[in-house]
Amino acid sequence: MTKRTQRTLNRNEDRNFSELTGKFKNNIYGTSKGKLREAVLQRDLAQNLPWLGGESDKTVLDVGGGQGQLALFLAQQGHHVTLVDISDEMLAQAQQQANKLGVGERVTLIHAPLQALPELSLGQFDLVMCHAVLEWLTEQQQALALLTQRLAPQGYLSLMYYNRAAQRMANMVYGNFDYVRSGLQVKQKVGLSPNRPLEPQDVNCWLRALPLKKLSQSGVRCFHDYLRDPDKGNSQFDALLELELKYNQQEPYASLGRYTHLMLQHQAASDDQ
Asked: Can you tell me the distance from the alpha carbon of 127 to that of 49, in angstroms, rounded to the nearest whole number?
């Protein structure tokens, strides 16, 4: 049985997706963009984690992991995963899937926001994942520091954030000039549209202030979101995925991904930065 810890800590100013759990499952995870995102993340983890697929079991923290696709993938590899999420409904989906896959004993679920990490006394982890979370938070730079604190020496951070530069590019391609001119601000937020997309230069500046070494950068959906015929994302998905994986770590394509995925490694004070 999956271990479950309930927390009541919340931050009202940050986004909670409890009421949109079904939409996430159907409109993101089950679509071409969701499948592409998962494939890129799995590829990047395999490229950068020397222990992935090995016999030794490692500890993984997935912050804002939602329904736990990546967390459960790692649990299936034999690693121990702690999944923290602000949405109880998302955690219920993750618990159901963990039990279905037979990995419940290797998964711990905690109902809490990212900001509660210091209070949870979780210790440090070989891998910390935070995917598509920062763009929903008000204190983004602080969140990066909290994630870094949970890394064991030489531990890895898998960070994916919504790329404001790519959002600007896509809206120019679509002809949404007024939206771009307004600074990508709208009066009424769309349900699944991130509140606070991040400028890559800001993220890079914040990361340089932390004991982290960048190992790789990938764009997620470098081509997918610019297709003139969006239906080809489904009808020719295999061809699209092949080319995304081929080019999404090369510039200029890596910087055009709707999301940016960074693999970073914690550096001890005595190590070269």
From this structure: 9
Distance CA 102, CA 74 (A): 13
Report the number of secondary-structure helices (H) and strands (E) in the chain.
11, 8
* 264 neighbors 212 (Cβ within 8 angstroms): yes
Q: Is the pTM of this model over 0.85?
A: yes
- 129-145, pLDDT tens digit by residue? 999 999 999 999 999 99
State the pLDDT confidence band at 188, using cuts at 50, 70 and 90.
Answer: low
The burial of 125, by beta-carbon neighbours within 10 Å (0-12 exposed, 13-18 middle, 19 or more buried), is given as buried
Residue 27 tokens, joined: 């409109």
CA distance 161 to 262: 9
Tell me: cis bond preceding 230? Omega within 30 of 0 counts. Answer: no
Let me know: does 106 contact 81? Beta carbons within 8 Å.
Answer: yes
Token pair, residue 102, equals 């037979």
Return d(Cα 85, Cα 104) in angstroms, integer. Answer: 17
Mean pLDDT of 108-112: 97
Token pair for 123? 């210790």
90-103: per-residue pLDDT in tens? 999 999 999 999 99
What letter does residue 74 receive in the DSSP assignment?
H
- What's the CA angle centered on 94, arms 58 and 82, to 5 degrees? 30
Q: How far apart are the first and last CA of the chain?
A: 42
- Give burial (CB, 10 Å; 0-12/13-18/19+) of 133: buried
Tell me the percentage of the chain whose pLDDT exceeds 70.
85
pLDDT tens per residue, range 246-263: 999 999 999 999 999 999
Within 49-153, where are the H helices? Answer: 69-76, 88-101, 117-120, 140-149
